[in-house]
Design brief:
Number of strands: 8
Strand order of the largest sheet: 1-2-3-4-5-6-7-8
Strand content: over 45%
Radius of gyration: 13 Å
Number of helices: 0
Structural class: mainly beta
Oligomer: single chain
């Protein structure tokens, strides 16, 4: 993950506690969205703690994080950590079948 900001959609997988990600950052090729997989979450709902791996446009591993998703009344807040330090923060809105979000990296 090489930009200061990006967008992502998480959708629950058929496997409980797993979310499939489609993500994009400025500067990446626009013809192929990137993918990701978050595992270890709750069996129901989106809010919870996950281990997430993102893959670049070429399918190679791009980054791994600990991800925490918190739900407020009508929004989500997200925090990605690497080695215990906050790497990215984001905000999201619920979708009928998942979560749409924007994120930014931390300096």
């Amino acid at each position: 993950m090489s930009s200061d900001y990006g967008i992502c959609i998480y959708r629950p997988s058929s496997e409980p506690g797993t979310l499939e990600a489609t993500w994009f950052e400025a500067g990446l090729p626009q013809d192929k969205p990137c993918r990701g997989l978050a595992v270890g979450g709750p069996s129901e709902g989106l809010a919870g703690s996950y281990q997430v791996t993102y893959f670049g446009p070429d399918g190679a591993e791009a980054a791994c994080f600990d991800l925490d998703i918190k739900r407020t009344d009508h929004t989500f807040s997200l925090t990605w950590k690497k080695d215990g330090k906050v790497a990215c923060t984001g905000v999201g809105l619920p979708l009928d079948d998942g979560l749409a979000l924007a994120y930014r990296t931390q300096p």
